Write the structure tokens for this entry.
Amino acid sequence: MLSQTHIHSFGSIEQLDEVTHSLGWQTEYRQLKPGAFSSTFTTLEGAQWFLMEEHTCPSVEVQAPAPAGMYALALIEGGTAVLNGQRVSPDHLFVLGPDSECRVTLPTGIMVSQMGIASEVFEDVHHSVAPELPISRLVASSIANTPGRLANLRETLRAALYTPAHHEYFREEAVTSILTSLITVAADHGKLPFGRSLHRAAARKVLERSREYIEARLNRKIRVDSMCRYAGTNLRSLQRTFAREMGMTPQQYVKSRRLNAVRQSLLQSDREEGLSVTIVAMNHGFVHLGRFAADYRRLFGESPRTTLQKR
């Protein structure tokens, strides 16, 4: 049976507690500032892993055990949080061991991306990639790294989270890539990204440079030939790299990033700003608004106007 991505939205902390407890989550939330409350969870569960994005407003404190029999990693964006007494910024990732406790304070505007992975899978990949690195150095550690590499981790996780169910193979490959990259980041910042071959390392470098180019031009026209020059490759190699590493073409990835950027803008905008879906879409490079709305609904399961009303 194919895994489905689920989006949960909540208008009060009481509703959030009620639903998460009904799902079997042993998570406790405490709202730190008075005022209107909103929370959005996007979740996806595989046989031996789960992926989740969480955005809650206003500030909350969250206390929860790590999933039983799983390692969990967390990445944030949009500010700085405090996780088990350690300050965690977008330049850090945090790893929790099986059955450990997690207490995190999330200021307004923070997006949390999470992945849980079965212990046996985590330990097998660890042994394959970095057997010299004690697992104790990974667990309960805030691991600093370059923003670019952690941004790649976040984007790979997000791409897997929002990939349609019929692309199951790509999602499994993405989970493996996230885990392998995570362990490599912690093991040695100077090693090749996946420590396997120069060819694979070169492909990852092309992907990293391409993403840098795309992120800098999300609201402008993106020419694939210019992207190739920036990444130091040719069109055919670029297409092969995106197909192998991301399961999509460069053009599809650009559209996915723009759609995700629109969604984040719609979810995080202030009601008093008076933003419209049209303005946000055009600010992110969408010209054909009917096509944009159809692509948005296909990816997120709702219209952009519905997302805007969740604020």
Remarks:
- The longest helix spans residues 168-187.
- Residues 197-246 form one domain.
- The chain has eleven helices and twelve strands.
- The two ends are 33 Å apart (CA to CA).
